[in-house]
Amino acid sequence: MRERLPIAVLVSGSGSNLQAILDASADPRYAAEVRVVISDRPGVRALERAGHAGVSTEVVAWRDHGDREPFTAAVCDAAERHGARALVLAGFLRILGPEAMVRFPDRIVNIHPSLLPAFPGTMHAVGEALAHGVKVTGVTVHFVTEEVDVGPIIAQEAVRVLPGDTEAALHARLHEVEHRIYPEAVDALARGALTVAGRAVVWKEDP
Ligand code: GRF
User: Fold this and answer.
1) CB of 56 closer than 6 A to ligand 1?
2) For every residue of the chain, which 3-state class applies, written as one string?
């Protein structure tokens, strides 16, 4: 069997996407292995989930670094200490500086709860989609570049907005999609099945 790609999953909160990746990686055919879970804050549920799965954790607190550059360096150092060769952002509420893209080129991915380029930004995509009155929103998995939420798109799936939807109800349906497509995208990355060609990401099924 081929070697699995060691990854670091970066979190700030509940970690349900982390859980989906941990569950998928329980299958030995899954191409990625979670080596470490890195949080920018202590005490979050995602760290508990990592603990239950027997995965190492690190807290790299923003306040200990004070600025984006030293914070980014500390996150990359923590990932590398555990042998990770890709960064998987799963509800991570900090923006990484350019050093991360240099140290993990085409190896940083994120999931976002809208159909980018609609409703970018780390905090309010679901509420903004509802407030805008869109009839369809969705989920995007993309490569992380220096500019927030504009990196090459790896996968997208639409979710209908229903009459009377609340932010919580809509986010719950978005999460269901996320938990399916994010582990698949991370597996494809780890298998070497994703090629970035300009803005486009091409999936090869059999690398
Ligand atoms: C997800 O909706 C993801 O798209 C966004 O943050 C949320 C994280 O949820 N970036 P969880 O922590 O994985 O449950």
Assistant:
1) no
2) CCCCEEEEEEECCCCHHHHHHHHHCCCCCCCEEEEEEEECCCCCHHHHHHHHHCCEEEECCHHHCCCHHHHHHHHHHHHHHCCCCEEEECCCCCCCCHHHHHHCCCCEEEEECCCCCCCCCCCCHHHHHHHHCCCEEEEEEEECCCCCCCCCEEEEEEEECCCCCCHHHHHHHHHHHHHHHHHHHHHHHHCCCEEEECCEEEECCCC
| Predicted TM-score (pTM) above 0.70 | yes
Q: How far apart are CA 35 and CA 50, in angstroms?
A: 10
The CB of 122 under 6 Å from ligand 1? The reply is no
pLDDT digit string, tens, across residues 124-163 = 999 999 999 999 999 999 999 998 889 999 999 999 999 9
- Ligand 1: nearest atom to the Cα of 12: 12
Which of 18, 20, 64, 21 has its CA nearest to residue 41?
Answer: 64
Ligand 1 touching residue 14 (CB < 6 A): yes
Asked if 155 and 187 touch (Cβ cutoff 8 Å), the reply is: no
Low-confidence ranges of the chain (pLDDT < 50): none
How many Å apart are CA 174 and CA 164, to the nearest integer?
16
